[in-house]
Specification:
The structure is a homodimer. By secondary structure, chain A is α+β, with helices and mostly antiparallel strands. Chain A is about 50% helix and about 5% strand. In chain A, strand 1 (about 1-5), helix 1 (about 10-20) and strand 2 form a beta-alpha-beta unit. In chain A, helix 1 (about 10-20) runs parallel beside helix 3, helix 1 packs across helix 7 (about 165-175) and helix 6 (about 125-145) packs antiparallel against helix 7.
């Protein structure tokens, strides 16, 4: 499998974690979104959708959209499951994941930032206010679901990481980059720290990737 | 099952179609988002998440997020499947659905419109430009995936409706409400018309619901 990734992409971060948790090796191809490399002919020949992340199977099948890729990996490689076995649990995990993927994250992506910049002339302060607003909304919604819920365990659902944790850590990492303190969402903070203590999560973090710019790079935790 | 719905909500529209296709009766409870009814104590007692759509099982389990609800219905009631049987097909259908649910739709929801209005002072013309921009981006992405793809049939994937069609029609309906002509996306247009000719889709349309305001109401097609 070929995995097309970009260090900063929150959706690439999700797939990296899933690949790590399932211990699946891939050939990683770095696509520099900051240099518009997703529009280059070379990438377009491989993935006409010109979007990240993408997973290309050995037979040429192109898989797109991070959650669809992860559900595919879950169906193909059921070991180290990322969804619980019972259907109500699965619904809860998917619902938590979708709060991030369908509500929070879409408002933070580069093409939205570009629209705010070019069409609406929002400058840095307003852009930051926009991002902080939606991170707050999302983490507050997650905290509401997680706190005092009998199904919440060491992780979002029970004591093993699931798709919900995979989505949540990406958003919590953005909060960190915006210098927001997670302590106002104590359950989110606890689970984020629990997850990031696992190598599968820590080594997938945007700031420790081979294509992370030197100036942004941090030492891997631990 | 109790289903909490609002006529205009694109996510409620999706769940209505899925319930129709699977022929599942529910008690429908209308929650008037325009009157902020989702924040009323009465609704909060039933669904503390105060978000639509929600499906409440007879044992009190609250299901949230439209795609998680539909995946749950798919697992519990596998007849009239909304996902294909093969895992690559399932990944494609989920990927198409997520283009709408994770990229297009989140930029059109009331809370975003409210932010654009109150925080950024965007007036009608700019608000409409914003909505049209994201509808164009989304339908163009879908058309790129659907046109000239061997897996596209009468519907987005093969000859029976799936989760991809359920998500696509909601977005195509928004284009209609914005008086945008679908003919620039010929495959989307063809599939939209094929889907809306089915009673399961037509009777779920926002403009023909029991809670649709009289002034907005249209005669059901056909």
């Amino acid at each position: 499998m070929k995995f097309f990734s970009f260090w900063r992409s929150q959706a690439s971060f999700r797939v990296r974690i899933a690949l790590n948790l399932k211990n699946l090796p891939t050939e990683v191809i770095f696509v520099d979104l900051d240099a518009d490399a997703q529009h280059a002919d070379e990438f377009r020949r491989i993935n006409p959708q010109m979007a990240l992340p993408a997973l290309v199977e050995d037979d040429g099948t192109v898989l797109f959209q991070s959650l669809a890729i992860i559900e595919y990996l879950e169906e193909k490689y059921p070991d180290s499951p990322l969804l619980p076995a019972d259907i109500k649990g699965r619904a809860r995990v998917r619902g938590l994941a979708l709060i991030v993927a369908c509500e929070g994250h879409p408002l933070l992506v580069p093409r939205v930032r570009r629209y705010l910049d070019r069409e609406l002339n929002l400058r840095d302060e307003q852009q930051t206010a926009w991002r902080r607003h939606w991170v707050i909304e999302t983490l507050t919604a997650l905290e509401g679901h997680l706190a005092d819920n009998k199904d919440t365990g060491r992780f979002c659902h029970g004591d093993a990481p699931t798709l919900a944790d995979i989505c949540m850590v990406g958003h919590a990492a953005v909060a960190g980059m915006l210098e927001m303190d997670l302590k106002r969402w104590p359950t989110v903070k606890r689970i984020y720290e629990t997850a990031m203590a696992l190598p599968a999560f820590a080594s997938a973090h945007p700031l420790v990737q081979p294509d992370t710019p030197e100036a942004m790079r941090v030492r891997p935790p631990g």
